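Q: Predict the assembly, please.
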Amino acid sequence: DAGVIQSPRHEVTEMGQEVTLRCKPISGHDYLFWYRQTMMRGLELLIYFNNNVPIDDSGMPEDRFSAKMPNASFSTLKIQPSEPRDSAVYFCASSFSRTGLIFTGELFFGEGSRLTVL
Amino acid sequence: QKEVEQNSGPLSVPEGAIASLNCTYSDRGSQSFFWYRQYSGKSPELIMFIYSNGDKEDGRFTAQLNKASQYVSLLIRDSQPSDSATYLCAVNIIQGAQKLVFGQGTRLTINP
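A: Predicted assembly structure:
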């Protein structure tokens, strides 16, 4: 069974350009998360969706960041305009809810998208 | 105070010894706790979870939880060089919506 699929794996762009990161969660999972990882700040939650609906976007740094989940099998994270401080590894993860629990906490991560903004 | 705190290390342990990794959290209402392992250049993967006070063992790994002290730990017995990685503590924090918050991670090196 395929895991979480992210693209692109690597992206190098110039300041001011638009960046779009893509994610396909594991089939049947009803939660999707976007995290950002840097050496300084560690793994930070940006936004998460449940059944395609955004639940918590309090971690989205600013209006330059937006995320969508148009259907159960696809999500995008967009940065416009990009800045050098956005350079990081962006992880998408999916999960599922068990009977009686809202959220299990068992995340399945994609391989990440390494973004470099020059 | 950070929601989840870990000693960033690096922690160096000789092969065959016990590695002890610690984590504290701030939200008293948290009910579920996780340890993820991340090899260099790879994505995190879940290795243990614990919901109840006390110990939970899985092979060479033991997770320990003390909710009164807001403390979670991970013990790795008979450490192997393949255990060298960054270990991330994660806590399911409920503040309105639930969210899984990660600590900074502890870098562990097992020396042959």
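Chain B touches chain A at residues 32, 34, 36, 42-46, 49, 88, 90, 92, 96-105 (CB under 8 Å). The longest strand of chain B covers residues 85-95.
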